[in-house]
Design goal:
By secondary structure, this protein is of the alpha/beta class. The chain has 7 helices and 9 strands; from the N terminus they run αββαααβββαβαββαβ. The strands form 3 sheets. A 5-stranded mixed β-sheet has the order 3-4-6-5-7, sandwiched between helices. A two-stranded antiparallel ribbon has the order 1-2. Strands 8-9 form a two-stranded parallel ribbon. Helix 3 (69-80) crosses helix 5. The chain is globular and about 65 Å long.
Length: 309
């Protein structure tokens, strides 16, 4: 549904140009502060920051500060080591194992959804049912009976090691999971971090999750235990093609004023509630983001959120 508005990439330091400038520049009387809408010399359209935070929002800001851009990049690079991670391949299985190992290294207990995928091979050839799986981990909230799902698809296909579509989103969900993994971070609602498989072939991984677990929502098991294997879904926020600069002019380095696209589907069963959630994410962008101003649209489609509509 959204690109994450909270990542804070380090400034690019043009050391060579700075050295040359020092040799020829005349002294200046005083260093002028940059206006609020200028960051690191980049104009940010005047939409970011500058909103006074409440005491509650300052707590959120402390969690935002746990996000680390270099950690995010290293997770993308780790996923790219497996190539495009196309479903049904050994590289897909090894990438799933790697994702699970990373989540476990941060203290999470992981689970898998197992399902069968109909390969639907060439016309005239019999279809073959093959096993697939996908990984999820859960941050238990102080109210364990309800949750938000943060999702991204770990499978890809095509060139560029499928970095944009969707190592970028998978790494982002993993980085959010890492930032929330400390016992010091307490959330009111449970958060589930789900790394879907089979998105590129028709959203089968997300559909398998919905098929298998929708009926389990909000059921305490065993009764009186306070344990909810599938808390009631409050929302699923999909992260697909994140932090990628599609704007002009195209630059080698990520442009810090690239838009964050927050999308919901107008014809979904809960479009009104989805619009409210999108607005909350937009407002969070205004309050917490250093870069990447956000926009909202109502045409979310062709990604794993569709299974939840």
């Amino acid at each position: 549904m959204s690109r994450n508005p909270m990542l804070k990439p380090p400034a690019v330091i043009l050391a060579l140009f700075a050295m040359l400038a020092c040799a020829v520049a005349a002294p200046v009387a005083a260093q002028q502060e940059e206006p609020d809408f200028i960051r690191d010399g980049v104009r940010l359209r005047g939409v970011l920051g500058g909103v006074e935070l409440t005491a509650e929002e300052q707590i959120v800001d402390a969690v935002v500060d746990r996000l680390d851009f270099d950690s995010y990049v290293s997770l993308i690079e780790g996923l790219a080591e497996f190539g495009d991670r196309e479903q049904g391949t050994e590289r897909n299985e090894r990438a799933n194992d790697w994702i699970e190992e990373q989540l476990q290294s941060w203290g999470y207990e992981t689970e898998r959804v197992h399902y069968m995928y109909n390969t639907e091979r060439r016309v005239g050839e019999p279809a073959v049912m093959e096993p697939r799986s996908e990984v999820f981990a859960t941050k238990i909230g102080s109210d364990p009976s309800e949750m938000y799902i943060l999702g991204a698809h770990m499978d890809g296909r095509g060139g560029g090691e499928a970095v944009n579509d969707d190592a970028s989103g998978t790494a982002l969900v993993m980085e959010i999971a890492r930032a929330h993994s400390s016992p010091e971070v307490v959330t009111e609602k449970t958060i589930r971090f789900a790394l879907w498989n089979n998105e590129e072939t028709g959203l089968q991984g997300a559909e398998a999750y919905v098929e298998q677990r929708a009926g389990m929502q909000g059921i305490e098991e065993p009764a009186g235990s306070g344990i909810y294997p599938e808390p009631t879904w409050l929302g699923m926020i999909q992260h697909d093609m994140m932090m990628w600069d599609h704007g002009n002019p195209v630059t080698f380095d990520q442009a810090k004023d690239a838009d964050v696209d927050i999308e919901f589907q107008l014809n979904s069963a809960m479009a009104g509630e989805s619009a409210q959630l999108a607005l909350q994410i937009l407002n969070s962008n205004r309050k917490f983001a250093d870069h990447y101003p956000a926009v909202v649209s109502n045409a979310m489609s062709n990604t794993d959120s569709r299974a939840f509509q």
